[in-house]
Amino acid sequence: MIQNVKRFLVVFLVFIFLTGCNSYTEVTNEKTNLEDGQAIETENNHEKDNDLKNHDKVENEQSKEQNKEKEEKDLKSTIDLSVKPNEAGKIMILMYHNIGSKESDWVRTPENFRKDLKTLYEKGYRAISLKDFVNNNIDVEAGCTPVVITFDDGNRNNFNIISKDGEKTIDPNCAVGIMEQFNKQYPDFSATATFFLNGTNPFRQSKLLEYKLNYLIDNGFHIGNHTYGHENLTKLGPTEIQEAIGKNAIYLENIVKDYKINTLALPYGSRPRKEYYKYLEKGQYKGKRYENIAILNVGSNPAYSPIDKRFNPASLPRVRASEMNVQGLGLYDWLEYFDNNPEERFISDGNANIITVPKKFEDRIDNEKVDEKELYIY
C-alpha cells in the first residue's frame, strides 16, 4: 500500500515537472516570438523612416533646384533685350599721361580732357576701375559700355594741390579735379582712374605725397606700378626686372598701408625676353613678394571682355587718348569704329550677376571666367 502511494507520488511529481517545463517552453517561445516580431516591426519602421527621409531629401533637392531655376528665370526676365546687351564685346582702356596748357602727343589740355569725358558720357560709356574690369566685376546701367581710365608717370598735373584762402584744395584743372567735378555733374559717371607711378616723388609734391596717395585710395581711385626707375624692361634680366617692379611696390605700399600694388603698366610698352615674362606677373625683391593681376601695354586697341577666351590680363592693350599722331588708333577713331560696329562693343545688361550674350557670340565665351554668374544666351 505504502509502495503504491510512493509510486503515485513519483508519477504525480514527474507529471507536474513535465507540465511545468512545457509551460515554461511555451512562455519562452511566445516571448521570443514576440521579441522577434517587435524587432521586425522596429526594423520595418526604421526602413520606413529612412525611406521617408530619403524621399524628403529628394523632394527638398528638387524643390531647391526648382526654386533656383525660377529665380534664374525671374532674374533673366528683368533683362531688357531691347538695349541689345552684349557682354562679350570689347572694352577700351584709355591711356593718358599729362594734362597741360598746350596739346601735344602725350598731353591733353584741361578743355580737351573735359571734352573726352563729355563725349564718352554722351555716347553711353561709364567709367569703371581697372581692378573691377579684370575681376569681371562690371556694374554699369543697362545699355551702357564700361571704359577704364589710366594715367602713366604720376605727373603733377595728374593730381595737383593748390592753396586757396589758406587751405589745401585740389587744382580744378588737374586730372583728379576734372574727374571729380565731372562726377558732380554726372553722378552715374564714376570718378575713378588708375595712376601708374614710378620713382620716389610721384605727383611732384613730396610733402603732400602721403596725403595724395591716401586721398586717391579713399576716394575711388587706384594706384599701380610703373617700375621704380621707369626702366626699359627689354634690356633687363630676371634680377633687374624683379628689382624694378618689387622696389617700387615696396616703396608705395609703405606709404599706403593695407593697399596692394598689383597692377603694372609697362614703361614704353617694353617687354623683356619671353622666358622672363613670368617676372612681370610675380617675383620678389629683398624678401618681399609681388604679384600683378593686370599688365598693361602702351597701345593700341580695345581689350577683350573678361569672359572672352582671348582675354589675357597679362597683356592688356590700351587706347591712346589723344588726337595727335595716333595713326588711326586713337580714342576718337575707336569711338567712330564702335558707332559703326555696335555689335563689337560691350553693352551691359544692367545686372552685375548675369552675363548676357547674343547667340552668335556664344563661342567666344570661356565658361570658367563666367564663374558663379548666370549666363544668359539669347
Automatic annotation (TrEMBL):
User: Where's it found, cell-wise?
Assistant: Secreted
Q: Could you tell me which residues belong to the region Disordered?
A: 43-76
Alphabetical list of SUPFAM superfamilies matching this protein? Glycoside hydrolase/deacetylase (SSF88713)
Q: Organism's domain of life?
A: Bacteria
For this UniProt entry, what's an example GO CC term? extracellular region
The UniProt entry, under Pfam families, shows: Polysacc_deac_1 (PF01522)
| GO terms, biological process | carbohydrate metabolic process
Alphabetic keyword roster: Signal
| Protein name, per record | Polysaccharide deacetylase
Q: What is the lineage of its organism?
A: Bacteria, Bacillati, Bacillota, Tissierellia, Tissierellales
Positions of the NodB homology domain: 145-378
